[in-house]
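Notes to self after the Tuesday call (sharing in case useful).
The group wants a holo model before anyone commits to mutagenesis around the pocket. I volunteered. Ligand is 2-OXO-4-methylpentanoic acid. Logging inputs and output together so the record is complete.
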Amino acid sequence: MGTLPRNRTGSQQYDEDKLGFGDIFTEHMLTIEYSAADGGWGSAKIIMVQDLSLHPAGMVLHYGQQVFEGLKAFSGPKDSDILLFRPDMNIARFNRSCERLCIPPLDPKIFMDQMAELLRRDRDWIPRSPGTSLYIRPTVIATDAHLGVRPSKKYLFFIILSPVGAYYPEGFEPVRIMVTDKYARAAAGGVGEAKTGANYAASLLAAEEAHAEGFTQVLWLNAVDKSAIEEVGTMNIFFRIDDEIITPKLGGTILPGVTRDSVLQLCRSKGMKVSERVISIGELVSAANKGKLQEVFGSGTAAVISPVSHFRYLGHDYIVADGKTGQVAKELFDEITGIQLAKKPDPYGWVVNVG
Ligand code: COI
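Result:
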């Protein structure tokens, strides 16, 4: 393939077939400022991507009042297509996260319309090689210059765009995950279900320790007694045990993933037995020991469907599906990416064309 940017201006030249995740940015960004004193959210501007200017007392820098989202735009069969996958879900989750972080919500229609406008402006940056997309990162930060702890009175909402390939270096090859009983990601009543930077900052040390031992990601257990499985650092997690598809139920500590919801709907529509319930690490280990654990896979916007070949718990290593990609993970990957690219029927009307 070896496609190079088509009509793109600017200095960044790259090979679409070698895209990683999150290093390359398009030309333009969207900004909307909020000021309580000036009556709320102002008007949207599309400007060249540039450094932000922020007072060193900007509240996001001290107290982490921040929310973000992640979604993807895909090229479609027609040159003019700009295909989004369930953007309404991301916008709704963004506003729920804002509510948790005391950030004023954005009008969902303005969010959608302005995001579409930005995408049309930078449409030539949507990659076309297999496995690539234009990752969209809406973010809001507290910008008030103030050192007392309270919600900010000023915010900056912005959207940046990044052409991406696979999230993990493994691509769609299986990843290895390490179960941590040392750290916790979220506790009931905390911010675990909000998409805020703090959750990711809190996960870094465990992830670094896992990387040092050759694992791609951490599998988190519940904070209280480290018995129930919650999620992987950047994905929700699914298990196939005795032909039951199981994922931990949402309950305030787990991110309500858009891909998670899509996986559940697709599996139910195929007549599979699907359960959103508590699954303990003990049940997982016992299923693995009895040969009943057929598959493990993660789901996420960035990762799509990511098969898991191997997990480590309390120093014991467990191999899943002989270290290969399982059948359900493969089917889901093909189906979801097929729908996203308008190559397969979209019975739920998930894809929105803003081209
Ligand atoms: C996503 O899947 O979009 C995420 O937000 C994961 C990550 C890159 C933080």
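Two things stood out.
The chain has two domains: 6-164, 175-340.
Residues 1-7 have pLDDT under 50 and may be disordered.
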